[in-house]
Write a structure and sequence with these properties.
Helix content: under 10%
Largest sheet: 6 strands, antiparallel
Structural class: mainly beta
Distance between the termini: 17 Å
Shape: globular
Strand content: 35-45%
Amino acid sequence: NVTKDTSTHYTAATLVKLHFRTNEDNLQEFNNTWLSIVFDDAPYAAVSGPLNLLCGTASFTEMQPSKPLRGLLLNVYRNKTDATFNCRIFFPMPFRNHAKLYFSNEDFSRDYKIGWELKYNLVDDPVDHLTTFHATYT
């Protein structure tokens, strides 16, 4: 089990975009990689599930390049220029102090790369008005 604390932010903010990308050689590993997000030192992950399900697709290997999924809160597509598979999640996820992202994959048999980036906006409202986003797959 490989787990890594990949990001920490120490003020009230809202995650507004998560972007994941991988190439065709790493699709199986991508489909088996879990993302967990823990907000504000909670004893459990508020967001927990395999990247492919969080991205709204059962498997990137079945995705047709000519049929991207485009929605208000989710985009899944294959970039024709660099042949990467991409997922952008736009669900707003507020937090009071910090968010920690953990990636894990118990089935991996080789090194592989998944690109990712996140965008957040600082929150001006009082932090006692924030509600945490939850999404868990079992």
